[in-house]
Amino acid sequence: MSEQRGVIVKTYRGSQDEATRLFQEDVEAMAVKGYFPTSQSYAPGSYGCGTFLLALILCILVIGILILIYMLLVKPDGVLSVTYEFRGTAASRAQDEKTCPKCAEQIKSAARVCRFCGYKFDPTPILAAEASVREAAQKKAATARAIREETLAHRLGKWVGRQRAKYREHHPK
Fold first, then answer.
1. Assessment of whether the complete model's pTM goes beyond 0.85
2. 24 FRET partner, CA 20 to 30 A, in 16, 106, 142, 159?
3. How far apart are CA 16 and CA 172, in angstroms?
4. Given pLDDT bands bounded at 50, 70 and 90, which one contains residue 3?
């Protein structure tokens, strides 16, 4: 999974215990990627009306009674739906936040004043951080530009190769 931000809804099928076990196995892997569960709901399985009507029609035969008893005793698998929200990985959250030295609350790293106690931060580290963010954005843009140019050159080279092949096909030596 790529670093997508937003909401993911996953479903786990089985009995309530089995679906919960599958969810608990998956929640740690999702947390490593920065996604944390925000809500979950379990819907027990049920047979549709068509299955019930088929069992009633087959009641004429002994098989229908057996099917009806089976439907009453054995419930189909339910579905546990879990909504995950992206909150960032531990490393990205550590970069995005800093601790106020006066009140020890977590605030955004770009903040110049603590919103809890009003502590004023030294602007020098913030300017350095802004410069590093700007530098990282420039590097990312340069990399994207290089990839775009590389792909364009690759496509152009393939086109030239096809044109040469067509020329040789129509003009043999």
1. no
2. 106
3. 73
4. very low
